[in-house]
Amino acid sequence: MVTTKKATAPTAPIPRRKASTPAPVKPTTQSAPASAKGPAPKRARPAPEGVPAAVAKAARTAKQVTRLIRQSPVGQAGTAAQAMVRAGKSSRLRQVVRNKVVVVTGASSGIGEDCALKLAAAGATVILAARTPQKLAETVARIEAQGGHAFAYACDIADLADCDRFCQTVLENHGHVDILINNAGRSIRRSVKHSFDRFHDFERTMQLNFFGALRLIFGFAPTMLARKQGHIINISSIGVLASPPRFSAYVASKAALDAFSWCAASEFADSNVRFTTVNMPLVRTPMIAPTKLYDAFPALSPDEAAELVMKAVIEKPKRVATGLGLVGAVAQALTPGISEFVLNQAFRLFPDSLAAQGVDSDGDGAEAQGLAGNPVELARKLFSQVFSGIHW
Predict the structure, then answer these.
(1) Is 361 exposed, middle or buried (0-12, 13-18, 19+ CB in 10 A)?
(2) CA–CA distance, 390 with 371 (Å, rounded to integer)
(3) Cβ count near 175 (within 10 Å)
(4) Which residue is catalytic, options 166, 210, 250, 297?
(5) pTM for this entry
(6) How many domains is the chain built from?
(7) Is-catalytic flag, 250?
(8) What is the domain extent for residue 91?
């Protein structure tokens, strides 16, 4: 195990030219001849390729309305209110994590890195775990440059022996862990029919997403129980609530961790050790980058996703999820037939990647072949907007 610890001049304003006043144009009820003088009529912007003109015009109108609202007194008041809410959250986060020891796995990029930065800024001592020492060192440097405290440990969460060494080293060096954030994970997007000869995909996904996270819980929970305080946060997926097609391996691994957490929570409740499951929607991280289909999908930024995790840290709820995720879970329970029909439409609408089909591709162009500029692509975009945040 490798341990890493750190010890232009302003431009003059350009003078504005005095605009000449155009001559007034007399109103007329007749059409002016083509050669008549006067301001030329504005031409409508051409719609982007593959997008109907009406859709493009509606999008432009929506942007204009949004801009006007933001510039209005009401919009400015809303912006100020949001700033006050953010300040309140920062204060509450500081009250919860100041001088606490927080472990974040998968902390070298994406959601984990943003969580580490926010926690350190709030006064926590952050323990970073990931496979790449160099990236970990860069994250530690960013934290320390902001005045925070962080320690980095290179650890492969899919290696159970490495997990044991990591837990032992952290406890020896820091005494205890107050909060464990199981963020490291692996996703696989492949339909079941293309997985019959790829059982190892399920083994690898379970090894990291379930067994690795479970090993860390087993490593840190005993001291939490002995001290009668602790918080375990598992980063799960909206897929556990919505059951999207092509994610059977990924969703099964996350569902296993969810189920374990709900069972363990009832056993630990009187010991003041809490469990929180964060059913995260689609987030634009390196994990989804290979799936080019997602480039046009609405997705959270890592910073927005980290805010959901901070909500879990502050409030300690049983679950943090989006409204759509909860609706998906209710729909599965109350109207399973309708849910299955909708999910089957998604299965037919969003194909397997060429790699999942075992077809050689030539990069981004091959991955997106036949997707741009046709009615099917428009249907995909509309579907992804209606069911925003779900992995398809």
Answers:
(1) middle
(2) 19
(3) 10
(4) 250
(5) 0.73
(6) 1
(7) yes
(8) 80-329
